[in-house]
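Final report, Chapter 2: Outcomes

The project's central promise was a pipeline that accepts a single protein chain and returns its three-dimensional structure in a standardized token representation, suitable for archiving and comparison. That pipeline is now operational. To close this chapter, we reproduce one record exactly as it appears in the project archive, with the input sequence first and the structure output second.
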Amino acid sequence: MLDFFANLASTDGFIIGILLPFLFVLTIVIFFHELGHYLVGRWCGIGAKVFSVGFGPELVGFTDRRGTRWRLSAVPLGGYVKFVGDMNAASAGATEEDDLTEEERRQAFHTKSVWRRAATVFAGPAANFILAVVIFAFVLALFGRTVADPVVAELRDGGAAQEAGLEVGDLFVSLDGRPVSSFSDVQRYVAPRAGQPIDMVVERDGAEIALTITPERLEIEDRFGNQIEQGIIGVVNNPELGRYRVETYGPVEAVGLGFQETWYVIARTGGYLAGVVTGRENADQIGGPIRVAQVSGQVATLGFVALLNLTAILSVSIGLLNLLPVPILDGGHLLFYAYEAVRGRPLSETAQEYGYRIGFALVLGLMVFATWNDITILFGSG
């Protein structure tokens, strides 16, 4: 029994090895998402009754001088801001109009203009994107990053690169007209384009040569043993030809690169989701809380900086997920507000109610599907 508890508390155990990194990542992402709603809501004159990280019973909390109850709740799989006038945490459906004082009516969410409501709702995902920019910029400014020249050091026999005519020593110049400055640029561009022809220019013996290559879709194994499908052309870099080095950046340059990194994650995640919808990508990469917890524990073994980078990536994913035009999510609210802005009146309460029910069913179905993927991968039955 003592060994059991010792294993739980060890750095490789559940509590320190998985649970704490998971809670660290998720709590930061949720807090900043809800903080975006809260701050912009305040700027728009909307009062807040509850700011909660997590759902369910309150574990600890306090009430500030404005009357907002700040809570840390028992189930850390989300959060919410309950604005004045809301009947529920999702700011959806009916309002508690009859129970409001005159002062509360002036601060109520539903009494504000459609633009103020839309800004308040959009602020949550926007805060997630801003958080990602800040984290990426912070890491790059403090630690820099390792880069390598985009040189072919080795070719995989029978790979797409060999068949396209690439040779050892070739220097990548551009991919589909986009300049290439490091080997990671090549990897990032190729990975999501399995089966899609890429026009590339390489430099060989001082001359530029144009080639067309189509990445293969292969399942690769990362350093933790996770299986990932992505596009591969079959080229390898090495320290000798790639001249591995750490590049450092000033604050302004780091912020610019932070925006670039965030946009890359947005484009990659959005492209994957679009690929799932069109059938071009497999949906088995969609993960839920179990996968996030597992990956958090794995990445934590690489150090605090790696965990920060994961937090930024997850923050972008949460922001994008919430912008999906599904009622009950932020994107669904924005869809209703767009209708109201165009028509000059809100959608009927009945239509909104049906929309929220459908949205709830869709989100619940996605959660079940993601959890099934997590369990399948966790127990190796996929």
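Archive annotation: The CA atoms of residues 58 and 73 lie 4 Å apart.
This record, like all others produced under the grant, will remain available to the consortium after the project formally closes.
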